[in-house]
Write a structure and sequence with these properties.
The complex is a heterodimer of chains A (212) and B (308).
Chain A lengths: L2 H27 L29 H4 L18 H4 L57 H28 L4 H5 L2 H9 L1 H7 L15
Helix pairs in contact in A: 4-7, 6-7
Chain B lengths: L6 H26 L7 H19 L2 H25 L4 H24 L14 E3 L7 H7 L1 E3 H19 L1 H11 L1 H6 L4 H27 L11 H11 L4 H21 L7 H5 L1 H13 L18
Antiparallel strand pairs in B: 1-2
Helix pairs in contact in B: 1-5, 1-6, 1-9, 1-10, 1-11, 2-3, 2-4, 2-9, 2-10, 3-4, 3-9, 6-7, 7-9, 10-11, 10-13, 11-13
The chains are: A mainly alpha (212), B mainly alpha (308).
Chain lengths: 212, 308
């Protein structure tokens, strides 16, 4: 095996290890419903003591409903009156004015003038109208959004043109002379590594035939 | 019927042609260097997934773009190693990557988010740039005044690619290894390295094309997000005769055809499925009519073995 092939093998095995590590870690930490121990439907079959006696169930649970001896013609016991009393829609006086609400109940909530950022006492009328913050969702303001775009855009431009400039400026350096093309391209992709490694690769010595 | 033929058709055509432009320019660098890259579609899918997942995890879409560039470059590198270094059949290698792109992102999406077909919506996407003054002009402002930054980037890449290809020594060397690698080698050009550069650039640009689909045009990765756009980009490249300017025209044509089929749905009383095949029919017609007449680089698809 020559030196070039060993370079290729080393780099590819490194890439594969990273890929497998990333894939494996993402699978490990993925929240799947099967692995969730709080899932009430899941039973830990492996750790179950199959020889242990099953605890006795309570009598209520054990007692089956005796369907054969049930008196099907008997009237069902009446439900409490509160449940049975419907609102008498026919006899309702629809023209009568509804009694006015009093006090805090009657006061309309002025949503536009409410100061949402102000800490209000719990019994204040506007308190319950405030939309609750959703868990896990971070709201960004305009300043944060522009910071993300500026810093991210700067990083993107640096990365993209950094690769091209590295390929241009280090084209005659020792590292580009010694590496096989495929490894050199990989170094261009991870170009900061190329700059770090470049001092360790000196230009190869060329022997000049001086005659004689 | 005629009300759909308005300026909106052109603007949505511009938006839909952007991934085609990026992928076709990438394909141009690869084919000009003598390596057929039919893996553009697969690289786009990989790039779209990488961009969406990184943008979601970090909350920064620009880091998603960097991830798309990285992943696109690495996947293209696999194609390069197989077809340049080990001289495998370039069509077979590209097809293998396209098949891999059907399953690998789905598997990773399932492992990371519990769904094989979709990633969670990203919070921020690539911002839209409104050009001052120009965006206020009535018709011109609507046509070129307000788009995503990636769209401007794609359109700026066209003259930049033309300059690189025809006005620099790098471009001359790249074209020479695609036309006559033996002669280039004799002149001292590193054929393998130049071909790797071509494939690398194709991966970066196709990855960006995929990223546009997931974090600029859309807000998540969905399964088969490219919908064959990598192949349409190849058709546009052939239609554009491997020239950046003509390729841009071809991509715009395909993009507007795509926008047309979207807008015409529900307007004409034809089943939607028939309308949706319109861009693909156009692709086949273009390929059938022009594939023999297009000036393919002489050594395109031919592996090069350096003589000892």
């Amino acid at each position: 095996m020559n030196v070039e092939k060993s370079w290729v093998l080393v780099v590819f095995s490194l890439v594969l290890i990273i890929l497998f590590f990333l894939g494996g870690s993402s699978m490990l930490f993925a929240e799947t419903p099967v692995k969730n121990s709080e899932n009430p439907g899941s039973v830990d079959l492996q750790n179950t003591d199959w020889d242990a006696e099953e605890p006795e169930k309570t009598k209520e649970a054990d007692a089956p409903i005796d369907l054969q001896n049930t008196d099907w013609d008997a009237e069902e016991p009446e439900k409490p009156k509160e449940e049975l009393s419907p609102i008498d829609l026919q006899n309702t006086d629809w023209d009568a004015e509804e009694p006015k609400k009093t006090g805090e109940e009657a006061a309309p909530v002025n949503l536009q003038n409410t100061d949402w950022d102000e800490d209000s006492p719990k019994d204040a009328p506007g308190q319950q109208m405030k939309p609750p913050a959703r868990a896990g969702v971070v709201e960004l303001n305009d300043g944060e959004i522009s910071l993300i775009h500026w810093s991210g855009g700067f990083l993107f431009v640096i990365y993209l043109f950094g690769g091209f400039l590295t390929a241009y400026f280090l084209r005659n350096a020792g590292i580009s002379k010694r590496c096989p093309p495929d490894v050199l391209i990989l170094l261009h992709i991870f170009w900061p590594l190329e700059w770090i490694l470049s001092p360790f690769f000196r230009n190869p010595v060329t022997l000049v035939n001086q005659g004689g | 019927m005629w009300e759909i033929l308005d300026l909106e058709l052109i603007t949505s055509g511009v938006r839909l042609s952007t991934p085609l432009i990026l992928a076709a320019l990438g394909g141009m660098f690869s084919e000009r260097a003598g390596v057929v890259n039919i893996a553009l579609d697969g690289i786009m899918i990989f790039g779209a997934f990488a961009a969406a997942s990184v943008a979601y995890e970090t909350g920064n879409p620009w880091l998603g773009l960097i991830a798309a560039v990285l992943v696109g470059g690495l996947i293209a590198h696999v194609h390069g190693v197989a077809s340049i270094r080990y001289q495998a059949d370039q069509i077979v290698s590209g097809t293998a990557i396209n098949i891999l792109a059907i399953g690998a992102p789905a598997m990773l999406a399932n492992a990371m988010y519990g769904s094989t077909s979709i990633t969670p919506n990203i919070k921020l996407s690539i911002p839209t740039l409104s050009i001052p003054l120009i965006s206020d002009i009535p018709v011109v402002g609507m046509l070129i005044g307000e788009y995503s930054l990636l769209i401007y980037f794609a359109f700026l890449m066209v003259p930049f690619s033309w300059f690189i290809l025809y006005k620099t020594s790098f471009g001359l060397r790249l074209r020479s290894v695609g036309e006559n690698p033996e002669a280039a080698d004799t002149a001292g050009v590193n054929v393998y390295l130049m071909r790797f550069y071509g494939v690398w650039l194709s991966g970066i640009l196709a990855g960006l094309g995929g990223a546009y689909l997931s974090i600029a045009h859309g807000s998540a990765y969905v399964r088969n997000i490219s919908a064959g756009r990598g192949f349409i980009a190849l058709a546009a490249l052939i239609f554009g005769r491997y020239n950046p300017k003509l390729t841009l025209v071809a991509c715009l044509m395909f993009g507007i055809a795509d926008a047309f089929q979207i807008r015409v749905q529900g307007v004409i009383d034809i089943p939607v499925q028939f309308i949706q095949i319109f861009p693909y029919i156009l692709t086949m017609v273009v390929l059938a009519g022009l594939i023999g007449k297009s000036q393919v680089p002489a050594a395109d698809g031919v592996p090069y073995t350096q003589s000892k």
